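Continuing from the previous page...

OK, I double-checked the sequence for Fis family transcriptional regulator against my notes and this is the correct one:
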Amino acid sequence: MLLPMDQASVRERSLSYHLALSACCDGHGNGHLFNELMRVAYVAWFLQQAGYGNETVQSYKTAEYAVEAALQLAHESNEWLLAEDAIPAFGKLLALHDAQLAVAPLHKVIEAEHQLQRFVAGMASSPIAEENQGPRAERH
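Thanks. Re-ran it with the corrected sequence; updated structure tokens here:
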């Protein structure tokens, strides 16, 4: 629990998230894949709050707003597509999360996933802090 995830598990998760992003960018997304994108953004946020990362709040908010817009588009037109201008933000978050999974102790990853479960079960609209709170420094 004090060591990072094993490399095979890191690669499997990473591949899953990167494939979800690719499908959502190409118009082949669906509700599950967009949920996966939000899952990685929120878990990355929680890990960053635990000291593993230094991405801007704006990157997280851009990702969050892009998924909300995509869900609205899907509701209105049944077209599941991520806005092109959101792709770089998701690219940054996926790269960050790959790095987080490579260095964060497994117990921190599990705690971040538990935080996600608590958020989903709660009433808050977002777990991501507003811009003025800023990111935390990365641990090594």
